[in-house]
Design goal:
The chain is mainly alpha-helical. Helices cover 50% and strands 5% of the residues. The strands form 2 sheets. The chain has a two-stranded antiparallel ribbon. A two-stranded antiparallel sheet has the order 3-4. The N and C termini lie far apart (67 Å).
């Protein structure tokens, strides 16, 4: 456990009282257990922080050096811990937003499938003629999977379809909205896709 050094109370020895009057000894709290002593004197000060002058013959400067080192190290560790916690919270929120793209979630019974996936949407935002016409996971282009096996998470068939659509967008950089949606309709009219999504492309 962390050894917390509080300010020296009244009734201390003369030597210890001189320690408390220094700025380092007056700072509170100081976490000595986080510091590794480097010589006999520093080890003695860590062992007898309230009476280092009496037990160790330490000067005010030597005591202040040990106490300040402990305080600075504790503040650095605290800052790093808070930063890591913030990153973990941000990652958890990001993971929650991309449930469909993160594998096969539990208790999946056949998901709604967003035809304009995030990878496709990202490519659309770079497209010369289709930029701004679609949103990630656009609710206008959703079809229902037949069952869990047909669609649960970001399965390999989903990756393959995304790859095909992205390559098409790169090949047809001047495609119109009608041409793009006709291409999507053709994909979702294929026999293997109709087995997964009996309703096919929305509005088909």
């Amino acid at each position: 456990m962390l050894a917390v050094l509080a300010s020296v109370t009244a009734g201390c020895s003369v030597g210890a009282h001189s320690t408390a009057s220094s700025p380092a000894a007056a700072s509170s709290p100081v976490y000595l257990a986080q510091v590794t002593c480097w010589n006999t004197m520093s080890c003695c000060i860590q062992r007898w922080p309230l009476s280092a002058a009496e037990h160790c013959g330490a000067s005010a400067a030597e005591i202040a050096e040990v106490l300040n080192g402990a305080r600075v190290l504790h503040e650095m560790a605290k800052t790093e811990g808070e930063s890591l916690e913030g990153k973990e919270e941000a990652q958890a929120q990001s993971d929650a937003e991309v449930t469909e793209d993160s594998g096969e979630p539990p208790q999946c019974t056949g998901q709604n499938h967003h035809i304009i996936s995030r990878p496709i949407s990202k490519e659309l935002e770079e497209h010369k003629t289709l930029r701004g016409l679609y949103k990630p996971r656009d609710e206008r282009f959703v079809t229902r999977a037949k069952d869990e096996e047909s669609h649960c998470g970001y399965q390999q068939w989903h990756r393959d379809v995304d790859k095909e659509v992205i390559e098409w967008l790169k090949d047809f950089s001047s495609a119109t909205r009608k041409e793009f949606e006709s291409f999507l309709r053709e994909i979702y009219s294929r026999p293997e896709m109709l087995k997964r999504f009996p309703n096919g492309f929305p509005g088909r």
